[in-house]
Amino acid sequence: MKLPFSSLFASASKSRFQTAHMTFARSGMGQSVSRTGDFLKRQLWVWPILAFICLSIIGFLVRGAIESTIRENVKSGLETLLHVETAMLENWYAVQIAHVQSIAKTSAIRQLSLQLINPSMDSSPSTSKGSETALNVAQLQASLQREIAPFLESHDSEGYFICDRDRKILAASNDELIGMKEVQQFESFLSRAFEGEPVVSKPIESVTRFRGEDGIYRTGVPVMYAAAPLLDENLRIAGALALRIFPEKEFCRILSLGQIGKSGETYAFDRNGLMLSNSRFERELILLGILPDISNTRSILQLLVRDPGGDMTQGFRPTKRRVDMPMTRMIASATAGNAGSDVTGYNGYRGQLNVGAWTWLEKYNVGVAAEMDHAEAFRPLTILSRVFWGLFSLLVAASLAIFVFTLILSRMQRKARKAAIEAQELGQYKLEKELGKGAMGVVYKGYHAMMRRPTAIKLLNVESMNETAIARFEHEVQITSQLNHPNTIAIYDYGRTPEGLFYYAMEYLDGIDLQSLVDQYGPQPEARVIQILLQICGSLYEAHAQGLVHRDIKPANIMLNRRGGEPDVIKVLDFGLVKQVDSNAKGVSGEGGLAGTPLYLSPEAIQSPSLVDACSDLYAVGAVGYYLITGKTVFEANSIIDLLQKHVTEPAIPPSRRVHIQITREFEDALLSCLEKSRAKRPQTARDLALLLRRCKPAQPWTIQDAESWWSNHERRFAATGASPATSHTSPLVNAPMERASTTDSNPSAASKAPTDRTETGFDQTIVHPPRTPD
Predict the structure, then answer these.
(1) Tens of pLDDT along 10-30?
(2) Which of 136, 134, 143 is nearest to 106 (CA)?
(3) Which of 86, 114, 127, 473 is deepest in the core (most CB within 10 A)?
(4) Domain 106-245, what fold?
(5) What's the maximum distance between 2 C-alpha atoms anywhere in the chain?
């Protein structure tokens, strides 16, 4: 088995031995990726869930990107509209200022205005009425009316007035204004005119009566004034000229051009949030009770732009007066002198959610806003969201359907596999009984349907099948089937059933493994051990000659059998960890990592797992012989680290010093030569070791009669007691006397303990079981 703890051992040990290079495949991340891949290949139902998650993430990211793009487009559109409207207004303001300045500088109008302001002033000789030296006030007003009239008509102005520095109106197109002094509505723009700055006022309510569209004269009509200073001969400000403009003719018309879509509008407002132009929703505002329901009602100078606290278009009715409501977010920002935009949404003057852009024109003391309903501005996003959620719902439904289908299919496959096993048929093989279960495999006793030959059939656990297990399974079969030595387990067949069960059929053995042999009967006679080791050497010599290293020689992987009338026939099992020495490719199970059983690992298998060779197997053979003759392992320790360190640094204690039996010097030397730390000092081939073993002359021989007697006695005892040498705690796989399947599942720990990722305290078997690794 693979033991991925070489780096741990190297860091903990203070010895100087070398650690193997840590590749990505052996790293924690690499193993996690590999296990994840195996899991996904095995659990098909996960794919719909992964697809759902991936598509959901992609959908949300795409929706977020589109939403961000739409927001930027809405913001850019509102700011562009605001910029165009503001530019048009500023151009209109400039025209009005230029117009009033040109009139104020006209010689005749200026002279007449100065005479009105200072009646004692002599008339100029250049005046058009030079025959008269003095004019009374009425004549001067009439003359001004005649001089200004053409200018008013050419620029569509509605009237004028002239006042002195005391703000007293001396002449006007509307007689009601003449004589008025310090009119409050005029103070804001007249004060700037008397400072020498031509100005256009914001819309204000008229103080005199004007005839409306209904023919009724009324005051409070919205008007604007363009004012400029009047200079005397010394270029001092003597008075002011103001031209009256009706804002609904041009000012409001310019702003009305910003009515885009069904809810977009552009309007002007003052510092109090009073609307200075017309709303496009005046009829709706009347129905909502925001504007009075009287004839010729206009929102200009009547509507306070306030936040009612709820959407009045959806039935909300405020409990506060309009004047007590807070300004909308847009008005509050603009009147503070800020320009900005908001596409996340804020409450408008109807309480609906708006998006907008705004600015404040300090020179003209007005603000301008471009707004539209949030719902209309983001209608494409709403449509996209509906489409997205519709597709998302379909995706959920499809994923659930695929998920259910894969579960049903997986369940049917499992049922088909179990049904095949319950039917006790596996291709051409009939199953008789289960011999045991291992970490990843189940072993059955069976026979070929036609040849009737007893067979051990191993198949992968249907609940634990994955690509790694299958690859390991195939590797073990392919490698073992190349070996023909009589002491190597024979592979008969390999295949996959239509239900997807992987299996192979192999030689059925009715013996006992060496681990169980020593556990139940103690140390074995020297002569018998030599015969066992000679047969092991024969099997390994063939494998080594083909460039194969077993890498997991241990007592549990060697069966002692009675075959063909011959007792004590050895069979070497479990070539699942075999490695091709002359191949650059790493073994399926090894992958360059630490592999084998710690109790029987050679020093180089610990230090450089990728460099093991035939001498490494011979080290394990020596350790197996040591165990057979003494009943004890070569080294004993309290932890894996200590055990591995002893294999690398501590010489083996001679067997004769650990047991009170006679061991020949030649046999002890042969075992110790296998356990040398340096490979150069060990036998170089299995045949070399066999030659050393044949030179041994044990004091008490082990004849064929001895072997026959041993097998006969134990078989009779087993028949009488119902016990079996294979039913001890070390061999839970076997359910019949003297029957043991030739399989990796002969590893007692692999069968009796679940293959979890843990370390066991005993060292008589493979210590570390990697998760989900084939047994």
Answers:
(1) 444 444 343 333 444 445 555
(2) 143
(3) 473
(4) Beta-Lactamase (3.30.450)
(5) 169
